[in-house]
Structure formats: C-alpha cells, structure tokens
Amino acid sequence: MSLDGYVAGPNGEMNWIKLGDEMWDYVESITADADAAIYGKNTFKMMEGYWPTAANKPNASRHDINYSVWANAAQKIVFSNTLTHSDWGGTEFLKGDPLEEIQKRKAGPGKNMLMLGSPTLAQEFMRLGLIDEYRLNVNPIILGSGKRLFTENEFPINLELIESKSFSTGVEALHYNLLTK
Predict the structure, then answer these.
(1) How confident is the model at residue 154 (pLDDT cuts 50, 70, 90)?
(2) Would you say the pTM of this structure is higher than 0.90?
(3) C-alpha closest to that of 53 among 35, 39, 38, 71
(4) Residue 129 neighbours by CB distance under 10 Å
(5) How many helices (H) and strands (E) does the chain have?
(6) What is the sign of the dihedral through the CA atoms of 36, 37, 39 and 45?
(7) 59: in domain
C-alpha cells in the first residue's frame, strides 16, 4: 500500500509497488505457513492470468518459480457472484456472505489462509471481523488518490504490532495481530 493508504492508483495501476529479492524472500516466509489463498474476482483474474504457468517460463526467476509452485498447490477460495469456473486446479468459487464459510474453515484443519490483494473483499472481511492478522507492506510513495484498503466503514480496528521489517527499497513490512474488541 502507499503511505497514504492506497492499494492501487486512480486507474487501478500498481506499477509504483516496489519489489525485489528481499521482498520476495519475505513473501515466501509468509506463504510457507499458509495452504490457502482467498481472492476477490478481480485479483483472482489477475493472478490466474500469470501464476499457473509462471514457473514454466524460460526466464522465470527463482521467486516466480517458488511462488508459482505455492500458488498452484494452495487451495484458492474465490468470492464472486459471477465467476463459476477456472482451469486453475484447486479453485473453489463461493457466493454471498463469507462469514459462515470462513468461520467453518478457520475451525477446521490446515495452515493459515491468506487474502492477497482484493481490497473490496478485505473491507467486507474487516466489517465481519474475519481478519486475525494484518500484513501491510507500506511503499514510500504518496499517491493522493486511488483505491483505498481502509474505509470509514471498518473503524475502529485495534491492532498489536508483532513485527516490522525494513527493506532496502524503502518498503516497511508491518505485521499486526487483531486485538479483541
């Protein structure tokens, strides 16, 4: 996200997000503890367009290979009222209110579930109290406008800082636990 709280620019652009080997290593440490990815429709379509075959590309980086392997093996839970099918293995589509479905999955076996991107879905999860941890990568840029992660409908959310990590790109990775209400 940007320093002023945007996760995409005014036209959906994300070319301002700083990545690098350090960031990818950090992402791999997070995905190692997860076996499911939660997406909204738009983020899923973006991920589905790249990650299923990213490891097979002749110029694939180590990080592309590692993330592609994880993403292909992970269960993909997609909340969408319009999408119903994908050729990307391990994808399940759910409609409507996520409260019961996510609570049931949290109570079951398995590792962590990660919500990747999907700011509109994240806002709904915040409203329903379904997010236990927040991992925010704050980029050193002020966008001024765009798509916000946090809107006035979710507040207050009380958090406890668990870890912060600084990267050479200027990105600050912040890891928070949700405090009980």
Answers:
(1) low
(2) yes
(3) 71
(4) 13
(5) 5, 9
(6) negative
(7) yes
